[in-house]
UniProtKB/TrEMBL annotation:
<dbReference type="GO" id="GO:0016740">
    <property type="term" value="F:transferase activity"/>
</dbReference>
<dbReference type="Pfam" id="PF13410">
    <property type="entry name" value="GST_C_2"/>
</dbReference>
<dbReference type="GO" id="GO:0005737">
    <property type="term" value="C:cytoplasm"/>
</dbReference>
<dbReference type="InterPro" id="IPR050983">
    <property type="entry name" value="GST_Omega/HSP26"/>
</dbReference>
<feature type="domain" description="GST N-terminal">
    <location>
        <begin position="1"/>
        <end position="82"/>
    </location>
</feature>
<dbReference type="Pfam" id="PF13409">
    <property type="entry name" value="GST_N_2"/>
</dbReference>
<dbReference type="InterPro" id="IPR004045">
    <property type="entry name" value="Glutathione_S-Trfase_N"/>
</dbReference>
<dbReference type="InterPro" id="IPR036282">
    <property type="entry name" value="Glutathione-S-Trfase_C_sf"/>
</dbReference>
<dbReference type="InterPro" id="IPR036249">
    <property type="entry name" value="Thioredoxin-like_sf"/>
</dbReference>
<protein>
    <submittedName>
        <fullName>Glutathione S-transferase</fullName>
    </submittedName>
</protein>
<keyword id="KW-0808">Transferase</keyword>
Length: 202
């Protein structure tokens, strides 16, 4: 199998962490590509008609795309238990929350990087950031008991989301007022799968 990816993407990182947590890292070839929302790489479009990453090319050549689809597939293939049936709806909700933080944070970056400065909307950027930080506070206030449990896909999504906030929005200091979550993340980001997938500067 092949993973069409970009190491800077938090959605790609989520899949890469799941690969390692599920023991499948050696079963998937990671294929990094240079792509953007305005200039989609041919490899990406061939794997996903929406032009988004990540995409997983299975051995029979058929692609899977959307990180949540890919992580469910990998978990089922490995029997890793990252979507435990007894906590499934909580896991899926927490994963959706983490993905939502990522999406809002990525949109902030797109607004600054892909639009000419004269066309950028500070109000749009702040609206997206408000979505992200509101969700971060929600996780801090309501999900710490779940985060204290066994590692699952929801925890991985939140961990990758917070890592992306550090990577692209470090000046925003999401940790302020979210002490419990900050403490959890300090431990979670030291997991080998997180360390191995940490994006480089750029």
């Amino acid at each position: 199998m092949k993973l069409v990816s970009s190491p800077a993407s938090p959605f790609v990182r989520k899949v890469r962490v799941v690969l390692r947590e599920a023991g499948l890292a050696d079963a998937v070839e990671e294929v990094p590509v240079a792509t953007s929302a305005l200039n989609t790489a041919d490899e990406v479009r061939a794997a996903n008609p929406l032009g988004k990453i990540p995409a997983l090319i299975r051995d029979d050549g058929r692609p899977l795309y959307d990180s949540r689809v890919i992580t469910r597939f990998l978990d089922a293939r490995a029997g890793a238990g990252l979507y435990p049936e007894e906590r499934l709806w909580d896991v899926l909700t927490l994963e959706a929350t983490g993905d939502g933080i990522m999406e809002a944070a990525v949109l902030c970056v797109y607004e600054r990087r892909l639009r000419p400065e004269a066309q950028q909307s500070p109000d749009w950027i702040e609206a997206q950031w408000n979505k992200a930080i509101t969700a971060v506070r929600h996780v801090n206030d309501r999900w710490m008991d779940h985060l204290a449990g066994p590692v699952d896909a929801g925890q991985i999504a939140v961990g990758c989301a917070l890592g992306y906030l550090d990577f692209r929005h470090g000046d925003r200091n999401w940790r302020q007022g979210n002490d419990a979550l900050a403490g959890w993340f300090e431990a979670f980001e030291s997991r080998p799968a997180m360390v191995d997938t940490r994006p480089a500067d750029g």
